[in-house]
C-alpha cells in the first residue's frame, strides 16, 4: 500500500511509520523535518497547518493521522489531500467525560473531562470534523500508550526508581486503575482494519486494566527487582511525583478484541520499552518527579 503518516519522527507516529515500512509498504511521512527521519520512509516536509500544494497529484491507499489535535488539523489536511481510499485517526480516551459509568464504551456520548480539559475537547472537535467530511473514516481511542520510542517520562520514571534503589512513593494505596496498550498493538489493529474494512468505525484500544501497584511492580520486574512502597497520603498533586493524574478509568475493548487477538503482555512490552529507554534517555522528556519527592514528600 501507499500510506501517508502524519508526523513520523516521535513515538507513536514514528513507530507506525517504521512498522508499515518494514512490511513493504510505500510510506510517506508529513512533518516539518526538524528531527531525524526514519530510514525507509519518504519525507513530505511541511507544517500540516500550511501544506499548500505538497500533496497535489498524490494518491494514497490509506492516511494514518496520528497528529490531529483539533478540527483545523483535520480540515487543513483534507483540504490538501486529493485522493485517498481509507482514513484512520488516532484519537484518545480523553474524549469521554470522567463522570461516565466505567467501563467507557464507544457508544457513550463524548464530552468535557475535567482532567484532560482542552485536550479532550479539541480531540472531540477533530473527530467530529473528520466524520463530517469522511463518514467512512476509522477512529481509534487508545488508553495510555507505551513501548519503544516513548518519549514521555512514564515507565521510564519507574525504571529509574528501580535502578536507583530506595522506596517507591505510591499514590495512596495504589488501587487506582490504569490501562495500557503497546504501540505495536495499535499498528496491528490498524493493519486488521485496513485489510478487513469492518463495519464499526470507532474503537476503544487497550489491554486489561491494572492497578498502580501492579503496574509499578511490573516495571520493577523488568530490572529483576521488587518495590518497597511508601504510600503518599498527603494532599500533594499526584502528577507532581507520579507520571499519571489522579484519574483512574477503564475502557470497554470488546470491539477491538473482536478484531485483534494476542495483545502483547505487559511484562513483555515493558521489557521492550526498557530496552529502548536505557539506550535513548536523551530523547525522553524528563519530568522532575524525583526532585519533588526529595524536596517535598520526604521532608514532610
Structural description of this entry:
The protein is built from nine helices and twelve strands. The chain has 300 residues and is of the alpha/beta class. The strands form three sheets. The protein has a seven-stranded parallel β-sheet. Helix 1 crosses helix 5, helix 4 crosses helix 6 and helix 6 packs across helix 8. The termini are far apart.
At a glance:
The chain has helices at 11-22, 71-80, 118-133, 155-164, 183-196, 212-222, 254-259, 266-277, 289-297, and strands spanning 2-6, 26-31, 42-45, 59-65, 83-90, 138-142, 144-146, 168-171, 177-182, 202-205, 209-211, 229-232.
Task: Describe the protein's topology.
Elements: E1 2-6, H1 11-22, E2 26-31, E3 42-45, E4 59-65, H2 71-80, E5 83-90, H3 118-133, E6 138-142, E7 144-146, H4 155-164, E8 168-171, E9 177-182, H5 183-196, E10 202-205, E11 209-211, H6 212-222, E12 229-232, H7 254-259, H8 266-277, H9 289-297
Parallel strand pairs: 1-2, 1-4, 2-3, 4-5, 5-6, 6-10, 7-9, 8-12
Antiparallel strand pairs: 9-11
Rounded radius of gyration (Å): 20 Å
Per DSSP, what share of the residues sits in E-state strands of 2 or more residues? 15-25%
Query: What structural category characterises the helix and strand content?
Result: alpha/beta
Largest sheet: number of strands, sense, barrel closure: 7 strands, parallel
Order of strands in the sheet with the most strands? 3-2-1-4-5-6-10
Measure the end-to-end span. Answer: 58 Å
Helix content: 25-40%
List the main descriptive attributes of the protein structure presented here:
alpha/beta; 7-stranded parallel beta sheet; 3-stranded mixed beta sheet; 33% helix; 300 residues
Amino acid at each position: 500500500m501507499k500510506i501517508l503518516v502524519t508526523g513520523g519522527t516521535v513515538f507513536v507516529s514514528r513507530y507506525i511509520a517504521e512498522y508499515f515500512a518494514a512490511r513493504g509498504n510505500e510510506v510517506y511521512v508529513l512533518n516539518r523535518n526538524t528531527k531525524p527521519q526514519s530510514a525507509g520512509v519518504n519525507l513530505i516536509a511541511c507544517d500540516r497547518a500550511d501544506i499548500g500544494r505538497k500533496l497535489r497529484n498524490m494518491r494514497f491507499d490509506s492516511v494514518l493521522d496520528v497528529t490531529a489535535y483539533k478540527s483545523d488539523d483535520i480540515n487543513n489536511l483534507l483540504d490538501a489531500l486529493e485522493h485517498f481510499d481509507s482514513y484512520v485517526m488516532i484519537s484518545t480516551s480523553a474524549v469521554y467525560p470522567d463522570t461516565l459509568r466505567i467501563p467507557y464504551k464507544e457508544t457513550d456520548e463524548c464530552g468535557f473531562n475535567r482532567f484532560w480539559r482542552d485536550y479532550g475537547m479539541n480531540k472531540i472537535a477533530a473527530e467530529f470534523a473528520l466524520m463530517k467530511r469522511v463518514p467512512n473514516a476509522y477512529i481509534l481511542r487508545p488508553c495510555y500508550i507505551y513501548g519503544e520510542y516513548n518519549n514521555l517520562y512514564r515507565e521510564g520514571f519507574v525504571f529509574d526508581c528501580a535502578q536507583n534503589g530506595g522506596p517507591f512513593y505510591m499514590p495512596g494505596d495504589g488501587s487506582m486503575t490504569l490501562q495500557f496498550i503497546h504501540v505495536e498493538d495499535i499498528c496491528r489493529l490498524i493493519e486488521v482494519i485496513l485489510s478487513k474494512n469492518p463495519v464499526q468505525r470507532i474503537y476503544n484500544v487497550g489491554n486489561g486494566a491494572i492497578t498502580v501497584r501492579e503496574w509499578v511492580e511490573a516495571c520493577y520486574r523488568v530490572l529483576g527487582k521488587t518495590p518497597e512502597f511508601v504510600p503518599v497520603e498527603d494532599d500533594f498533586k499526584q502528577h507532581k511525583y507520579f507520571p499519571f493524574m489522579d484519574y483512574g478509568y477503564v475502557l470497554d475493548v470488546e470491539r477491538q478484541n473482536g478484531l485483534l487477538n494476542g495483545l502483547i503482555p505487559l511484562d513483555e512490552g515493558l521489557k521492550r520499552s526498557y530496552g529502548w529507554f536505557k539506550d535513548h534517555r536523551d530523547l525522553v522528556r524528563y519530568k522532575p518527579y524525583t526532585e519533588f519527592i526529595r524536596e517535598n514528600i520526604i521532608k514532610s
